[in-house]
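Final report, closing paragraph on structural work. Over the funding period we assembled a curated collection of sequence-structure pairs, and we close with a single example.
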Amino acid sequence: MTTNTILLLFLSVVLAGGLSFFQYYYKAKSKSKVLLLLAFLRFTSIFALLVLLINPVITSNSLEIIKTPLPIVVDNSSSIEALNSKEKLLELYQELSKNPALQEKFAVESFQFDSEFKASKTFDFKGKQTNFDGIAKGLKAIYKNSVYPTIIITDGNQTTGNDYVYRFDATNKIFPVIVGDTTTFLDLKIDQLNVNKYAFLKNKFPLEVFLSYSGNKNSIADFTIKNGNTVVVKEKVSFSGSKRTATLNVLLPADQVGLQVFKASVFSSEKEKNSYNNVKNFAVEVIDQKTTVAIVSAINHPDIAALKRAIESNAQRKVILLKPNQVESVQDYNVLVLYQPNASFKKLYEANAKAGINAFVVTGNSTDFNFLNQQQNELIFKLSNQKEDYLADFNTQFNLFALEDIGFENFPPLENAFGTITTNGSVSNLLSSKIRNVATNAPLLAFAENGGKRSAFLLGENSWKWRLQSHVQEQSFAKYDLFIDKIIQYLASNSSKKSLVVTHESFYNSGEAIVINAQYFNKNYEFDEKAQLTISVVNSSTKQTKNYDLLKGSNSYAVNLDGLDAGKYKFTVKELQSKSSYSGSFEILDFDIEKQFVNPDVNKLQQLAQETNGKAYFDNQVSDLVAELIKNEDYKAIQKKVSKKTALIDWYWLLISIAVALSLEWFIRKYNGLL
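Its predicted structure, as stored:
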């Protein structure tokens, strides 16, 4: 307390004592014990009230021992149970978490991980995925700027996420405890199947198969692929102690339209410990129509290659590159991509005026805008010869089709002529332009529909840089390619707008995210943010029905159907107010990635320990791990001085003492007839 506070408290004692003396002893005829008690009660109440008015702050100091954290992270994925390591893992966890020596030195905390990382002291080993990346991110968020060891009890078999060896902070040692039988068993496994989701009727589609073998004997395996009960492929594959992998490339026939489910299997005459990983199902949707896209350009530009790659990322699309004078019949194409049109495109425009093929126009520095003004009336160009860089601004109210913002504002600028671009008629802007972060409100990517004919305009060149930037952001071209595919899909269809649009896959693998998206539009075809969408999902075999609500996102509604068993499902999406509905179906293929393993990944865990200067231990070496942690001088408890300041007004018992003192004083005065 400060000197002023002490002086005020001293004055409070003097004032309270003086008032009590004046009221009960000054000119009092008799000085009985009752008056002495009353004077004390009056002194107490007055002094306590004055102290509350002064409100001194009391500082208390204490010493706190802060122990080094010791997170014990337990693998809760179903692969633990598949490897018959559940009981051993629980035994190891109990032995480590309740060790008195570890508890005395460390602040022991328990966590679990499968697809997610969270604090837990109980485990059910039902996780569908194993994501070590979640451990690294979770520990970093919980123990910021701390140095601590981590024990991970696991089989080391990762099924999703980044390679965990290099994801952990190198300053914090990792001590993996390896569970599972490390004995090498004979095991044949289908590691991976690479196949497109779509194939075309009467064609053959490629399948790439990666097989692996664990064992020392020479072995000959039979690899087969069945479509229903029909064997479509059968091959013999040889393995040995020196040849442990094989890659097969086969062509499968697409003879029937619709979803075709295939079963790939590899078996030998030897008995295996795990035969689940000998079989994999996959599905291909066979379609009888292919969209042919003509990219017409009079110049060479990197944009053309980027567009071609993005469009052909969808197996339903075929791209043909042409010069304007090479287009013999526009009816041969479903969509025209007109790249930087000029006067050489005149005959093509005249032919298309009769054919009515939807077009995607891309402009740039080589575009003849006077010619373009003559050939269409959706956009009016008043541009100079000066070049300008235009950044993209995403329009969240765009409603012609469902599309998420893939980071357009972070994309490099497109180059186009400087000037004004105005819209004429019904034009929807997906992207508006900005010049050095100043909004122009002019279109950058626009869509128009006139008399049943659809058009799209990308007003700027160098969109190939967008595709590269998307890959930098996502480590994949998938999002950008899907963005281009949505544009082509819109142009390839002339169907009228629907109030309820639902997007879904025809099949999913069990264990992966099952997401269905929907958009609902009002009578003006504007995205309705107040729609009430529900989905009813029915298992075709069991007839079990589940109902869900779709949650609103930025420009669409979505539902996650994770947890459904493998099988065929029918579903209906309804909008409750308008009664609009959409019905569809999908199939979940039986595939449990956690059952693909027969041994723990010892090499990976040892590599992780080495990268963090830790050490990997087997399940019979836990006592060595405990001894290592106890003797390690890097982890010492810290004694910390903690100062706590408390305002006296927060002491509730002081208020109680005032109330008690005043009540007792009144009661005693009343009892003795002094009122």
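The longest helix spans residues 3-24. The chain has a mean pLDDT of 87. We thank the funder for supporting this effort.
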